[in-house]
Amino acid sequence: MSKKILVTYTSKYGSTSQYAQWIAEKLNADLFPARSVNPKDLSQYDIVIYGGGLYAGGIAGVKLVTQNPCKNLIVFTVGLADPSTTDYSPIINKNFTPQLLKNTKLFHLRGGIDYKKLGPVHKTMMAMMKNMIQKKPVNERDGEDKEFLDTYNSKVNFENKQSIDSLIAYVNGML
């Protein structure tokens, strides 16, 4: 018997939506934006995969799955930072209780940004981040800081379809 899978997401600028589409295609899963999912319907699925962008220490829309029971929960985050060098534990600990965290598998993916499409709040946040980095002594800036300054106020896209492979393999191991 095949398991019923839902991929749902909150995407402001498109990267999370793109990853959700790729994941749903690979898994032949139902795909819905989080805003159109009735929380009561989550229990109808054997596996729920939730994707949310990272913004100021939060995961966009994640309360849909942290405040409503899911049989098997997988969460993927999408942000600008390189997942291979980023410590996500402060964000994860802020958004998940220890008990929920024990029962949730997490994946981190890299998105993109187009400064021309940012809303005023996000533009202000990015400007504040730029100012914080510029105040650091040059010798204390890491690779992420340098990359941020080099790409500030431009359009960059780090989306990579192959980066979903470990998530797909994990789900296939559950089937």
Automatic annotation (TrEMBL):
One term of GO molecular function: menaquinone-dependent protoporphyrinogen oxidase activity
Gene3D superfamilies attached to this UniProt entry: 3.40.50.360
Pfam families: Flavodoxin_5
InterPro entries, per database record: Flavodoxin_dom (IPR026816), Flavoprotein-like_sf (IPR029039), Protoporphyrinogen_IX_DH (IPR052200)
SUPFAM superfamilies: Flavoproteins (SSF52218)
GO BP, one annotated term: heme biosynthetic process
Record-annotated Flavodoxin domain positions: 6-136
Superkingdom to which the source organism belongs: Bacteria
Protein name in UniProt: Flavodoxin-like protein
